[in-house]
Amino acid sequence: MKPAEAVVFVVDDDPAVREALCGLIRSVGLRAEAFASAQDFLNSPRPDAAACLVLDVRMPGLSGLDLQRELAGRIPIIFITGHGDIPMSVRAMKAGAAEFLPKPFRDQDLLDAIGQALERDQEARKERAALTEIRGRYDTLTAREREVAPLIVRGMLNKQAAAELGISEITVKVHRRNVMRKMKAGSLAELVRILEQLRPLHPQGKPTYT
Questions:
Q1: What is the pTM of this model?
Q2: Cys-Cys link to 171, which of 23, 113, 148, 167 (CB 3.0-4.6 A)?
Q3: d(CA 137, CA 37)
Q4: In a domain, 1, yes or no
Q5: Is the same domain home to 158 and 118?
Q6: Which whole-number Å values give the CA distances from 199 to 36, 67, 134, in the listed order?
Q7: Domain co-membership, 170 together with 113
Q8: Measured in Å, how far apart are the chain's first and last C-alpha atoms?
């Protein structure tokens, strides 16, 4: 099932190829937008929808691999090329390409790759939206609540957390209750799971919640 309002971007310097690819993509009910160069694509506004990029490797100006570096994984990329070689495909896949299809390829192979790429992007968008929502909850915590939260996650008792922070046990209980409510956590295990999604690791491996 294709994601709602999904769009497939086609970037190829050959007009005939662009037209053929867009025709194929539209034939299965997907929206397609074509660009003659990588720079044209970078300069264009993009809709807020699940998307993927069908990209030629060799083009004048910015190459497909150059564009891949510019996008830095923000959109799934399916590379197509008539000049590809193994080292090039390895570079593309290591950099996160969804697929690498040497010409000639079967129409169905491309459509399958597009379907998988759109699903991948839709899931990534859901994850980003969920993370943004969790960050919004975390931003409502007071400074003291942010100090209490990691101690709760570490399994400290209220008495231990109070001693660690130099505050009363009653105060810790209040902050703990507020943290659970604001983070919408029904249990300690759920709070741990939620905060894990926000935890960048300090170089020494110590968790920070910033």
A1: 0.70
A2: 167
A3: 41
A4: no
A5: no
A6: 41, 30, 12
A7: no
A8: 38
